[in-house]
Structures are given as C-alpha cells and as structure tokens.
Amino acid sequence: MDRIAELGGAHPARYGEPTDDGRVRCTLCPRHCTMADGQRGFCFVRANQGGRLVLTTYGRSSGFCIDPIEKKPLNHFYPGTPVLSFGTAGCNLACKFCQNWDISKARELDRLQDTALPETIADAAVAVGATSVAYTYNEPLIFAEYAIDTALACRARGVRNVAVSNGYCDDAVRRDFYGVMDAANIDLKGFTDDFYRSLTGGSLQPVLDTLTYLVHETDVWLEITTLVIPGHNDSDAELRDLSTWVFRELGPDVPLHFSAFHPDYRLRDVPPTPPATLRRARAIARDAGLRYVYVGNVHDVEGGTTFCPSCGATVIARDWYEILTYALDARGRCAACGTAIAGRFAAAAGHFGPQRRPVRLSS
C-alpha cells in the first residue's frame, strides 16, 4: 500500500505528552494546546487521534515551486540559485495581516493537492537542479516531523535546507528542526508584546529566543524579515528598538529585510507601505550599526543591493530577483578591498533569475 495512503495523512507526532485527564498536550509551541480525542490544536494540523498526537499533513502539500533563493528572502545564501519550495496548511499564529492566508489559515485539508514523501522531494530537488529545498508558504514548524524527515533525505543527497519561519516554538522542536537546516529567514513581525498579542495572537519572547539560539548556538545562516505595517510597527522608536536589539544581541552581520505590507486578510483597511517608509526603516537600521539592510516587495535597486561594509563598493547588485553584479571572490570577499562579506557564497552567482516554476510531485 502507498505509504501516504497507509498513513491517511496522519503521522505520529514527536512533540506531545499525555495529561492526567486522558487528553494529549502538544509541546511544539508556546500554545501547548491540550486536546481530547478527535480534537485539533490551534494550528489545525496537529490532532489527538485515538489518544495519540498526530500530524495530519505528513506527506501532503499545498504545492511545489522552484523559486530564486532571494524570494525567501535570503540575500547572503548562495545568491542566484534555485530552491524547491513547498508548504502544507495551517499556522500556529493568527496574523491579521497574513499574506498567505489562503494556505496558512486553511481549514480544508483538500487544499493539499500534491503528495510527496521525503525521499521523493529530495530526489525531485536533484532532478530539477535545485541546490536547496525551502520549507515555506505556511509555518513549517507545525509540520516539523515531515520537514525534519525531508531535510535528512535532502542532506543525504547533498541538497541544502532552508526554513522560512515565524520562529514561534518551544526548545525541543527548536533544536530538532533548526538542527537540520542550513539557513533560515525568521519573521520578526514587530518589536512589542502588544503588537504580537493584538495582531498575531502570539508573544514576542519565543521569537527572540529562536533568533538568539540560531546565532549563538548553531551554524545556521540567519536573515530576518519585518513586514512594515503603517500605523502598527512603523514608528521611528519601534524600528530603532528592533534594529538596536538585532545589533546588540545578534551582531551587525545578520541581514535585516524590511518588507512592504499590502492590504490583505483581516487588515484590508490599512494602506500599503509607502516606499519612503521602507527607506526610512533601512536608514534607521543602518544608523544602528547593521551592515546589511534591505527593502522588499517594492522595486528598489539600491535597497536590494549588498554593499561592502568597509569600502562601500557594490558587491551584489540586484533588480528584484535578478543578479546584476557579483563582485565577490571565491572566498566571499569584496573584489575591491578584500573584506569578508558575511554569508554563504560560491565562487560565482547562480543564474536562475526571477522565474517561478510550479512542479508536480507524486509519491
């Protein structure tokens, strides 16, 4: 029997414990959802099935696509290379501004139209020439068992692993999940508990814990994205506090991306982020000492370009997802002055460009 059909989409979950009253508590994220038999957690994809915690989306995906690595966004992780991206359904936050709400807020599992076991995904990445696999589109932490098994299969075939995540998790899954990743882009959605409570239904500290863990206890290459929402997290004070914290706790070399909001989901009454706001955020972060600060979701060549922090030379110029200039030597050093640029680089940039290629997989 087909392994996915045999599972029925339900795979034993690794992050749970029984309670004294016969229910099951999920320990994957700070919500610690406690479920009676037949109930699902907040994320909707982790459930109590016959007294055991299961992941209901193992081997099932909302779709696969080959993207440029810069779309994650990761600007300092093998620029110009293709990444095979996929997600499932559900999320453990409730962001009112969710830009992928049709996937992350899905309650109908029939949205998961493609099936693929970990080995199938790893083989497909090799076959299509993707140098990495990205766990993205919805929150990958909630399908940790599927992502971890896939990441191990990819590593066995020489394929790198990339997480695009909200970082909202507990210690055990943090170690296991990021322990098999090569790079991560973490959403730092705002820098106040009030923002997290009112607009995401979560809390700030677990995300900060993930960021400090990645920098100080792993070799995972880290970049951070903040979606700048007018009237909610775009004040000079909050942008300065966020940037200062990144500089002080993570160091000047962690790239920070300020991304433009567009009205969506339950925040349709807020206007799009003006490009001038993103430029202001970038200037604040650079003034705070951060060396690599970018803007996204708008056309801004300067805001997408990597400059040498020593001599100011352009080392990687980008136009959207197109690499225009690549002036790094084989060791990732500025061709003009020899300063090492933080990141993971090859001797030459890839040439995948801005294309986006959907692919179908089936186990």
- Count of helix runs: 9
How much helix, percentage-wise, in residues?
A: 10-25%
H and E string: HEEEEEEEEEHEHEHEHEHHEHEHEEEEE
* General form: globular
User: In angstroms, what is the radius of gyration?
Assistant: 20 Å
Beta-sheet strand percentage?
Answer: 15-25%
Strand order of the main beta sheet, please?
16-15-14-13-12-11-9-8-20
Number of strands: 20
Secondary structure class reads alpha/beta
Profile the largest sheet.
Answer: 9 strands, mixed
Q: Give the low-confidence spans.
A: none
The residue-averaged pLDDT reads 93
Please give a structural write-up.
The chain has nine helices and 20 strands. It is of the alpha/beta class and 363 residues long. The chain has a domain at 3-55. The strands form five sheets. Strands 16-15-14-13-12-11-9-8-20 form a nine-stranded mixed β-sheet. The longest helix has 15 residues, at 236-250. The model has no long low-confidence stretch (mean pLDDT 93).
Task: Write the topology of this structure.
Layout: H1 3-7, E1 11-12, E2 16-18, E3 24-26, E4 34-35, E5 46-49, E6 52-55, E7 60-61, E8 63-68, E9 82-87, H2 101-104, E10 114-115, H3 118-128, E11 132-135, H4 144-156, E12 160-165, H5 171-178, E13 183-187, H6 193-200, H7 205-217, E14 221-228, H8 236-250, E15 256-260, H9 275-287, E16 293-296, E17 306-307, E18 314-319, E19 322-326, E20 357-359
Parallel strand pairs: 9-11, 11-12, 12-13, 13-14, 14-15, 15-16
Antiparallel strand pairs: 1-6, 2-3, 3-4, 5-6, 7-10, 8-9, 8-20, 17-18, 18-19
Helix pairs in contact: 3-4, 8-9
